[in-house]
Amino acid sequence: MRKPPLQDVIVRPSRARAEHRDEPVAREGSSSRARRAEFVAREEAHDLPPHQPRPAHREPTDEMPSYMRTEQDGRRRVSKKWLTIAVGVGAVVILFSVVLSLLFAGATVTVYPKQDTPVVNASFKAQINGEGGTLPFQRMVLERTQQHTVVALGESEVEERASGKLTIYNEYSTTPQRLIKNTRFESTEGRIYRIRESVEVPGKKNDNTPGSIEVSVFAEEPGEDYNMGPDSFTIPGFAGLPQEGHIYARSTGDMTGGFKGVKRTVSDNDRTKALEELESALRDQLLAAAFDGSDKPKGYVLFKGAVFF
Predict the structure, then answer these.
(1) How far, in Å, are 71, 75, 215 from residue 85 at the CA level?
(2) What pTM was computed for the model?
(3) Rounded distance between C-alpha atoms, residue 92 and residue 228, angstroms
(4) Where would you tag: which of 125, 193, 230, 250 has the fewest CB atoms within 10 A of its CB?
C-alpha cells in the first residue's frame, strides 16, 4: 500500500536566523531543524510516482485523498456485488422451495386394519325362525340338474322296469294312513306298480278335501309292456277293508323306462367316471349358488360346515 503523501513542510527561519543570515556558521539548533525539514521534504519527494512533478504548496485540508476515495469506492462495489449475489441465491432458494411445495402438496395415507380371529368356546341353541327367543336359523334347499353323455361300447341282455309318479289320496279318515314298503298299486288294465319306501298319507280335511302325497313307483315286472300313460290305481291290499275305494292313486304323467332284451351298455369304469364328474360339477354349482347367489336369506350367515349333499 502506498504511503500517504506528506503535507508540505514549511520551514520558517527564526528571527534570530534572519538577522544573522550572512553569518557563515549557523546555530546548531537551526541547522538541525533545517536538516529535518530537508529530510521530510526528501522523503515526500521519494514517495511521489516517477515523472510526477512535485506538488505545489497547499494549505492543510480535511478532504480525503483521491487514492483513498478510490480504494473505499472499490470496497463498496465489492460489498454491493456480494450483497447482490446473496439476494439472488436467497430468491432462488425461496422459489425452489415454493415449487417443491406445489409439486408435493398432499399425502397418501394407507390404513391397514388390524384383524383378529377370536375363539369362542360356547354352545348355542337355534330353532327355526328363532322361536322362544333362541338363535334363529332357516333351511335353504337348492337343486341343480347336470347331464353327461357317455358312449355305450358294449352290448348285454338288459331288463329294466318302468317307473313314474303317483299321487295317493286319502278320503277314508282325518287321520294319516301309513302304507308299508312295496305296497302294490294296480292300474285299470291290471298292471302292478310298487312303492319302494313306506309313506304316510295325510288325512282328509274337515271339508272332506282328501289328503294327498306324491310318490315314485316302479313296475312289478321288467319290459316295455309297463310303459303307459296317465291312469287310475287301486290298492289291492285294501280289498274287503273299509279303506277300499277311499284310499286310491292317480298318475299325472307317463310310466316309462320299461325294457327287456339286448341293449348297448356303458362299461362300469366309464359309468363311474361320468358319475364322479357329474357330482363334482353339481357340488360347484350348488356351493356357488348357496354362497354367492341370491337364494340366501338376507341377514343370515351360511357356514360351510352346515352344508350337506
Answers:
(1) 21, 15, 105
(2) 0.42
(3) 102
(4) 125
Strand, coil or helix: what is 147?
coil
What pLDDT, on a 0 to 100 scale, did the predictor assign at position 1? 44
Q: How far apart are CA 202 and CA 212, in angstroms?
A: 6
Sign of CA dihedral 55, 59, 62, 63: negative
Q: Are 220 and 236 in contact (CB under 8 A)?
A: no
Q: Please give the grid coordinates belonging to residue 21.
A: 543570515
In this predicted structure, what is the pLDDT of residue 9? 44
Contact by Cβ (8 Å): 163, 215: no
Domains present along the chain, CATH in parentheses = 1-55 (no CATH), 125-153+275-309 (no CATH), 154-265 (2.40.30)
Return the pLDDT at 14. Answer: 45
Distance of CA 194 to the CA centre of its chain: 59
- Residues shown for the chain: 309
What is the four-CA torsion angle of 143, 226, 191, 167, rounded to 10 degrees? Answer: 20
157, amino acid identity: E
148, 270 Cβ separation under 8 angstroms: no
71 pLDDT band, cuts 50/70/90, is low
